[in-house]
């Protein structure tokens, strides 16, 4: 589903590589934690998968796409099949909960009929049916992240990329979000989640890919966060 082959990324302004000869393979249906200290290359790896950056060396594949070689005009098609959630939710502040989810379907050209069907399905999936007409500012952090997850899943992505999705949430709310992501993964969606949250990684016991200074430091099938440094 996702593959990095000997990928290095050197930003023009930076002395050391952000990623240094990294190879990783993720099968459909996997749940992968991407961990490592700040600056170890986690965001760069996610940005390469989205073609927000291109590798200096090596190859990046998502499903059948050779991502680095994809013509620019096909990049939107790739991104439509990747769901993204972030630490800061990134909801549209002037649109209701339902309209935030609808927007994701509008930009991919879905019909009114599809939008009317899919939006309530997505809100039900994340347990927010009763809050369809709320505005983002009226939501708790956990609710806002659930809207972001609903929006990310609306177009049935091949993979959900989550960059520190619990970074702004208290531990209890983080656990709720992880239960939701676990349920989504068990229903078949591949998930790659960058995180610093030791408790979550240790509780989930899923695959752990660890980066250090841009190098692959560890790839454990049912890993823990690792020794406290
Ligand atoms: P992480 O997400 O693990 O914190 P990043 O991928 O953001 O790591 O960063 C990896 C390295 O690349 C860091 O040294 C960072 O300073 C550098 N870096 C990231 N983005 C850029 C950029 N756009 N331009 C130059 N250097 C960058
Ligand atoms: P939590 O403690 O679960 O993070 P909050 O205490 O922030 O949640 O919110 C509790 C409930 O109040 C939530 O259902 C949320 O939708 C609602 N709420 C929070 N802030 C506002 C607001 N500014 N206006 C209206 N409702 C709000």
TrEMBL record:
UniProt record similarity statement: Belongs to the ABC transporter superfamily.
Alphabetized UniProt keyword annotations: ATP-binding, Cell cycle, Cell division, Cell membrane, Membrane, Nucleotide-binding
GO molecular function: ATP binding; ATP hydrolysis activity; transmembrane transporter activity
Membrane-topology descriptor: Peripheral membrane protein
Major subcellular site: membrane
Full protein name: Cell division ATP-binding protein FtsE
Cellular location(s): Cell membrane
Residue ranges crossing the lipid bilayer per the database entry: none
Keyword Nucleotide-binding in annotation: yes
InterPro entries per UniProt: AAA+_ATPase (IPR003593), ABC_transporter-like_ATP-bd (IPR003439), ABC_transporter-like_CS (IPR017871), ABC_transpr_LolD-like (IPR015854), Cell_div_FtsE (IPR005286), P-loop_NTPase (IPR027417)
Biological process terms in GO annotation: cell division
Pfam families attached to this UniProt entry: ABC_tran
Domain ABC transporter: 2-227
The organism of origin for this protein: Actinomycetospora corticicola
